Amino acid sequence: xxxxxxVLLLLVIAAGCNKEKVYTENLxxxxxxxxxxxxxxxxxxxxxxxxxxxxxxxxxxNYTESYGIGDTTTVNxxxxxxxxxEKIVLNYKTYTYTPVLDSANNVIDSIEVAxxxxxxxxxxxLTKDHVQLRNDSSQLYMRKLVE
Length: 147
Description:
single chain; alpha+beta
């Protein structure tokens, strides 16, 4: 029995490491939101109007989000897993700009300040072409776009 315990421990550790690998492989590619729930109420139309043509692309341990028609907004960052691979953490930077004024209060420059930010989602039903991401207030139902 004593010899069996280390073997079981190794199998549990290997299974945990394998889960992250499978999750990472399944996430690779470009995704779109097909359903959005806010406090369990379908708000897909609202989401699509605020984030038109929303896409998120996972590549390696990086991701890129983009949305907009004409003027496209893009967010680049990295992702990782937390809470025994039950959650995905999207890490990115936000920027604020403080104007620099001359003596006549004219803007002559600005100072950029970067701040680290993150969003966490609990992962549900991750397959190669579907995933559900949930946080305290919302749920994103996403499908992978055909490659």
